Amino acid sequence: MKKLMKVFAAASLLSLSIASTAMAGTWKQDSEGWRWKEDDHTYTASAWKWIDSDKDGMAEYYYFDDNGFLVTNAKTPDGRTVNENGAWTDDGIIRLRAANPSTALEMKKKGELLYQEADKKSSSLPGQDINADINLDVYYNSVQLPININMQMKYHDIDTPNMEFLTYSNIKAMELEKTESSFYTNGCYYSNSGDNQKFKVNIGYEDMSKHLTLGGLTGQFAKLLNNVQIAQDKAGNNVLFYSTEAGGLEQYLNTFYDKVWPSLTYSDFKITGVNGKAVFTPEGYFYKESLLISMIITEEEETMRINMNVNLDYNNPGQAVTITFPSTDGYEEIVY
């Protein structure tokens, strides 16, 4: 359900605060701590600031409190972690951002290459085992509707006579909960949408493959990467932090919705922020992905705001995928 997952992902927004990279200024220290003095002789206070202190082309992100002093070894008011030097960290990795256009372009090219190579390698795998958690907050007028979607997907040998797949999805919205499953084995497709709605269809693997968008959940954003940082975690995995150019993503969605979700093509949607994190194994496979996405949808003069957090786990990438299917009893046969 590759593209379906990215539809969910690209349907929404979770804004992160945006601050410009520091242009000019000076670190100042007194008995109470460090402060950042701007060229206009004011001090940054109650705000984040990107500062390239060592002039290596990559800036660190620092938070200054109400009195203008650098916060260290603590959680900031917006819940982020800063280390002993005051730099923002994510799972122990110091977050960086290009401090000049030439470095930004260089990092963008490196990020695109890393992402595309991982997508190519992961997509060539004979099978994958993927878990996806999607948490949405939908705001309409004064109402907030939280929605949680969990999807578990296993597949192998897509578009071959040995093709098999299994998907489970669980959706929770307020007090409502719905579980669905579908799978394909031995030339037969089975669907169970709950409430005794179970059917099966005898269908060849070639025709079944035409109806699928399985094949991995990666590769949608490679050309849209921006504000790229590449690092390594403690396990030796490559970590890619990025944001996407919303305009490019909206153009991609317009084309995609027209084919998959036509009703949305008649809505006016605007993505206001996308931030991502992709983790690759030392062998170059996708291991984890996280997306923070934000969108405003307007239709018939009514506006809905959606904040979405998508987390994808690729279990044991590169290993053989074994599928245990549920019972095939009780399914009503439908002629294809």
Look at the structure and give the CATH class of the largest domain.
Mainly Beta
Helix content: 10-25%
Oligomerization: single chain
Number of strands: 21
Assess the beta-strand content as a share of residues. Answer: over 45%
Count of discrete alpha- or pi-helical segments spanning 4 or more residues? 4
> How many structural domains can be distinguished in the coordinates?
2
Please tell me what the overall shape is: elongated
Name the structural class. Answer: alpha+beta
List low-pLDDT spans.
Answer: 1-23, 214-218
Mean pLDDT: 84
Give a verbal description of the structure.
With 336 residues, the chain is α+β, with helices and mostly antiparallel strands. The chain has two domains: 2-12 and 112-314, Clam (outer membrane lipoprotein receptor (LolB), chain A), CATH 2.50.20; 25-98, Ribbon (left handed beta-beta-3-solenoid). It is built from four helices and 21 strands. The protein has helices at 2-9, 101-123, 205-210, 246-260, and strands spanning 25-30, 33-38, 47-51, 58-64, 74-75, 81-82, 88-90, 93-94, 96-98, 127-140, 143-156, 164-173, 176-185, 188-192, 198-202, 225-232, 238-244, 268-280, 286-299, 302-314, 332-334. The strands form four sheets. A twelve-stranded mixed β-sheet has the order 16-17-18-19-20-10-11-12-13-14-15-21, covered by helices on one side. A four-stranded antiparallel β-sheet has the order 5-6-7-8, with no helix packed on it. It has a three-stranded antiparallel β-sheet with strand order 3-4-9. Strand 16 (225-232) and strand 17 form a beta hairpin. Mean pLDDT is 84; it is low at 1-23 and 214-218.
